[in-house]
Amino acid sequence: MMKHLLLLLLVAVANAKIFERCDWARTLKAKNMDGYRGISLANWVCLTQHESNFNTRAINRNTDGSTDYGIFQINSKWWCSDGGVSRGNGCGIRCSELQTDDVETAIRCAKRVVDDPNGIGAWVAWKAHCQNRDLSSYLRGCNL
Predict the structure, then answer these.
(1) From 20, 34, 64, 68, the catalytic residue
(2) CA dist 27 to 6, 32, 57, 79, Å?
(3) Could you give the maximum distance between any two Cα atoms of the chain, in Å?
(4) 68 belongs to the catalytic site
(5) Distance between CA atoms of 81 and 135, rounded to whole angstroms?
(6) Counts for the chain of helices (H) and strands (E), in that order
(7) Distance between CA 144 and CA 141 in Å, rounded?
């Protein structure tokens, strides 16, 4: 029995929560992200789709030795601590906290990132895929 419980626990940890687009949009809206620092809900949904495909466990290692974590792909160099090349910990958290299914910490940290002068432009994927584009499709059919 204990062996089965351990196996189930390991499977649960290994499985990421991957949000469905409209479910994620509703979550962001409930967390007051729509209009935060003038950033529309559609921009947040676009950004996270292109950064992580709505995957809370997403991880990406960068050529500078830093790592991007979680649904927002927040970088370890400036925003969280992972024991690597961190120069700052702007969100005051361990990077692993950005990879939980409870997205509260990730959302709080994303808000902290956009409080800086770069704003939402801190995300390369937003500049490449969302900036100055019609983003209506990201909320289509969500009944928000």
Answers:
(1) 68
(2) 31, 9, 17, 22
(3) 55
(4) yes
(5) 33
(6) 5, 3
(7) 8
Q: Which pair of tokens denotes residue 136?
A: 């209506």
pTM (two decimals):
0.88
- Report residue 74: phi and psi, to 5°: -85, 135
pLDDT exceeding 70 applies to what percent of the chain? 90
- The per-residue pLDDT for 3 is 43
Could you confirm whether 51 is annotated as catalytic?
yes
Euclidean distance between CA atoms 76 and 56, whole angstroms: 16
Query: What span, in angstroms and rounded, lies between the C-alpha atoms of 74 and 122?
Result: 10
**CB within 8 A of 8, min separation 6: which ones?**
none
Q: Are 26 and 141 in contact (CB under 8 A)?
A: no
Q: Which of 20, 34, 51, 104 is catalytic?
A: 51
Q: Mean pLDDT for the chain? A: 91
Q: pLDDT by residue (tens digit) across 64-96?
A: 999 999 999 999 999 999 988 777 899 999 999
